[in-house]
Fold this protein.
Amino acid sequence: MKQNIYDDQRFFAKYSSMDRSRKGLAGAGEWHELKKLLPPFQDKRVLDLGCGFGWHCRYAIEQGAHSVVGLDISQRMLSEARSKTTSTRIQYLCMPIEECDFPEDSFDVVISSLALHYVHSFEDVVKAISKCLVPCGDFVFSVEHPIFTAQGSQDWHYDHDGTILHWPVDRYFTEGVRTATFLGEKITKYHSTLGTYINTLLKAGFDLTALVEPQPEETMLRTIPGMEDELRRPMMLLLSATKRC
Ligand SMILES: C[S@@+](CC[C@H](N)C(=O)[O-])C[C@H]1O[C@@H](n2cnc3c(N)ncnc32)[C@H](O)[C@@H]1O
């Protein structure tokens, strides 16, 4: 049974109140870096795995994409995505990423933003992506950084006054399931090492074109309380790869 916490009413309400949900891409701390990795979308057929509210799907259409399939396990997330979408060139599908099995050469670009750390086998997903992507096609994605996911609880260690001491990194080479607290709820995520992310792509026939560990933009650092702590450890990993031609 795959986890579908985004359909939980309480979790969904909290997620909906986050900046990245209310403001879209402009409210996402990594967008200024992810945007640079995206290929030209003009006339491309795009697949977005774990599309959530559909921000990246609509961005691809605004950039001239021919069509976009946004896939997500959560009906609540997709219902919000549909209500924000006017283009008929975006199709939203409710299904788990683990079950996606599109025919060969169905897409020119596959993107995924902060969804693949919810999937047990990164290798299986990459195989499915490799199959449905055209030769020379692009795969660009973000996940929570292995330094962020390794220990599991996803919280700082504090001193007796509640001041941050450090971010705990432990069990780094023990890949697999973790139970983290996110938005006050227990949530299942999966930890993979940096080596696994990169070598899985290389083995599946992709060439790596960029690796970015994004830092918040200057404005966010200045205006959002606590944002400076984001410079103490990486939270996200952005990778772009091209299927060998
Ligand atoms: C952090 S949100 C990111 C949403 C969107 N990609 C964005 O960046 O705005 C993660 C999304 O992944 C979806 N998700 C989690 N596990 C999934 C799975 N196994 N299959 C499909 N979608 C999944 C969730 O429902 C949620 O919409």
Observations:
- The chain has a mean pLDDT of 96.
- The longest strand covers residues 133-144.
- Residues 2, 6, 50-53, 55, 72-74, 77, 96-98, 113-115, 118-119 surround S-adenosylmethionine (CB under 6 Å).
